Fold these 4 entries.
Entry 1:
Amino acid sequence: MRFLDPIITLFKVAFHHATLSGDFYKCDRKNFSDAGVEFFVALLFSTMPLWLFPIFSPLIFQADMPGISSYIKGGELFIYAAALMGPLIYIIAKRYGEFEKDSKFKLSISFPHGMTFVVMAMLICVFSGLFIGIIRSPLVQSYSNKLNMGGIFWASILTYSMSLYIVFTASVYRNALEDHVRRGGQSREADEFASEFKEARDAT
């Protein structure tokens, strides 16, 4: 698997200055590969209602059956995006978050870009809920011919793509933190990685 090293290095450099992936350079190859496997398995099974029937229906039915696009053209990906973000908010806030002793409302998160993850996930949930509410509202449906369904379709794809990016990035960081715990702090890079998170947490 050493042939993947140049690709992973380019990936780290390309996303070094991105909002959520700026600390990718502190993660090793195994963190990315493990996150990739987790990401693929989650994507495969979570989207099965969208692709399973369109792929296998030609083997069962002779008539033309609707394709995958027919299952998402109504903005259904907004639901999938919100479904991905809900558990992520809970896991980061519950497992890596801690309320300050002097305040029940001040939450510090010892996770890379932890608060940014939570805020972005919440925004995606709100954004998705708003669009699904608009699309499914009986009042709006009576004026469905005035809705730009093409724009809604691409907005749902963009929102879902962002949610996938957030999930993958969070998985990479989680794997890096778990590796640090397993190694008992023997890796200098992992020590720096965890120390910076601790300093950021203490500063909040």
Note: The chain has eight helices and two strands.
Entry 2:
Amino acid sequence: MLKKSNESYVTFIKKLGVENIINYGIICWLCFAPVNFILSNLAESIYLGAGKVVMLLLYLLALLVALVVFPVTFSRLNRKTFLFSLFGVLVVISSLYMSEDKLYFIKTLRTMVLRGIPLFLLFSTVKSSEKVLKNFEITGILMVVAGLLSVTVFREEHFHHGSSGYSMYTGYQTLVASIFLMGSILYKPKLITVVMLLISVIVNIMSGTRGPLLLEIILLILMLVLVIINRCSIKMKIFLLVFLIIIVSVLCIFNDVFEYLISQPLFTKYSRSLRLLMSGDFLKSDGRIEIFSTSMDMITSNLFFGPGIINERIEIGKRVSIGPTYSHNFFLEILTQFGTIPGTLLLIFFVRAIIKKYDSSKEFKDKILLVVLVFSAILPLLLSGSYIEWPMFYVLMGYLLNTENFMFKQNIGDIEL
């Protein structure tokens, strides 16, 4: 019976192809969140309680995909990935041992286990940059659609303080979607990706989050300059040049444009970002300043050892009024967790790995993919969020460790991998 099942599995892999199976796994894990949001909320709006049923079905589907994908992924593990994973396990175990609140620690690891680790394994074994960029294009479009529904149809249910509030989740997910779409445009410009990118800007304005909006506008201008200089047809260059001129013109007459926007009930009611601009407090954040200051105090007092991952949140929570929280900055978070000297060494190794990967990337598509991964993994973490719970960080780490130096014999049954 077991032998027959193994033969069926081998036949199935032969038919689909190993690289295709890994890419199916990637698109499943990347698209799970936006697809789950769209389908479960639509089902819930049709019939009360149907959303949970749809969510359960999607989790079961993801489990079936995992049963097919991960045996192939484990067979492609390389030595670097194995050693890094071992280091990660040791860090988690030691931090859990030192934790004052073990239940809080375990709850915080949920996103890492369910989304981070699977994406880490998938990107440590994938070989086709072109297919990944295509997956990013599809995922980016789905994420923008999910964001658009979040700021319109389902706004009351998912925003802090209802229609007048904001959604950090929507803002940063839309920022990642825009980075995916920009990477696709730099590689192979398409009208649909340009349109969805413009919609993502509107979604970020409506989401009420300041950081993602600022970052997206900066990246958008940078991308337009790069595309016009290097890539795409004459017609597309003309179109993008006109679009860039419009953006620059809007910035030049910002006051007039802003006065028009704030006079529109739709924007003044729903956009927290515009209200903060009206009050002159767009860049003001007393809570962040307090957290940054507390993090710096911890860094200067812990030169050789830190409290460990997640545990620094409890330490910060003791000193600020909002309870356990993270540093809201990737570099500060690493330094507060591991201590000044160990944290600095880890950051040096991290930056060096990125530079080394970029230098070893021979084709344009490989360089574009790495830039997209670095931007989507690190940029959001400079202003908010924690790498512990940010799936794209695990994607980047997996890709940086992706080599041909496999640990195991590369076959499943009689299939050469």
Note: The first strand starts at residue 411 and ends at 412.
Entry 3:
Amino acid sequence: MGRRTVVTVLLAGGALIGAVVPALGDYWTQYQSRPDAPYPEDQGWERITAYGGALRSIDDLGNLVLDSRGSGGIVDSYTIHAPGTIHADAEHPFVVEWREKVDYTTGTTESGVGIFSDDEWGAGFWIMPDRIYSINEYPANALFEPGWHVFRMTTDDMRSYVLSIDGTPALQGAFIHTYWASDVNWGDGGQGGTSLSHWAYFGFGIVPEPISAVTMFSGLVLVLRMSRRGWVGLSYTGRVL
């Protein structure tokens, strides 16, 4: 705790570059670009910017592109404040999942995700082209090949988590107590560096299934139903992690 940061929470899935959306249940809060509501704020997310925000676009495959290479001061992140929905237990784990490709970064605090529980415990991640850092356990990180990846964080107590990449457990760590509650955020949340990132989709929610195997750091594949509501994007700013 202590340094000011903006972090981003993302959900992603699917095997093709932005072409396949995971089947997510109605208990998920989600974002994915669609013609009538292309950007996160069009779907109910709050947008937080600095220095005018990133250059944004929707590519030909429907992915959100955030380009902050113009200035190290740029912030462009998305948040939802959702009291009473960010908690978990052994029978009802909390999951955040997103699909992202980071093409370019300078510095480590650029493309990110943050989760803040109803009782003020937080965890977060910074994503680079070939690795993902845990903010709480920095410099702990997991490596991957550059390109599109599905990231999934699962917790059954909002005190510890397992992060998988493309279905394989890659990091485990702890939440820390913060002064923020009931927020999930994602996007270009840091200052001091620049980045170019692509977001296929993002989501979070409570999954009504036991996850003891996940919290024991084994891989668990959850099959979820497609939501009728579409995706929603999240962002958050605060003194945390």
Note: The first helix runs from residue 212 to 215.
Entry 4:
Amino acid sequence: MKRIFAICVALVLTVAVLCVPASAVNLDNKYLTCHFWYQDTATWTWLQATPGDVMVNLGETYELKWTDFSNVSTLATTANIQFGVQIDDGSFDTDGDTSKINVTVSDIVIKADGYDDVTVAVAGTYDYDLGPLDTSAGYSQNHCFTFNDQVTAAVTAVAGSDAASIQTYLAAVTEATMTITYNSYNGETAEGAAPAEAEAEEAPAEAEAEAPAEAEEAPAEAPAEAETTEAPTETAKAPSTGIALAVVPAVMALAAAAVSKKH
């Protein structure tokens, strides 16, 4: 009788394991923070264009729009001015944290009074391995990915590369826009499914022709304020119970066999 009981318990535990959802990751608090930043290398004053940090939740498509660059006038022009678009994994909070981020972005379009529009060709889908977070030496850069080099190259081609020219250009910017979709965190989407494979990895310069899928989802006209597509409310779907139910007859058969042998 004890043997029969032990067999039944083992098989019941097996069924229970098969019924556990595939994802045990809490996806509710996974988000990115996006900003257009600039600083001078004389005083290392670090500033952001308004509205500053913009949060994008997992599963969300967001049109980023920065519209006020006027604080760039406070930077020193006695040295270089650095600038670009930076995107952080906002859920990092403990040293050692790591993540694998998958995003789809459009080209970045910058409009400035008195200058031709600038299009930064970065459209595509990318995978980024971030971390481990290390704050021991102050601000940690390994929890973010950037389009700094691409933005700098495109802007300086129009405005010039010296600090005064860059400052004048950025002060004249009326808007900088891009659309971003946060596809997956560590291989998990907001729905709990595996994400599509990245069309390009770490190669924005070659991804210009790869943006049609995301570009079709972007609004035809930039709204007065960024619009979002809400992520689904469920964070993970439980797998099909077909496998678990298929095991039930085997449980019954084994128990019957054990009983017959006993008698």
Note: The longest strand covers residues 173-185.
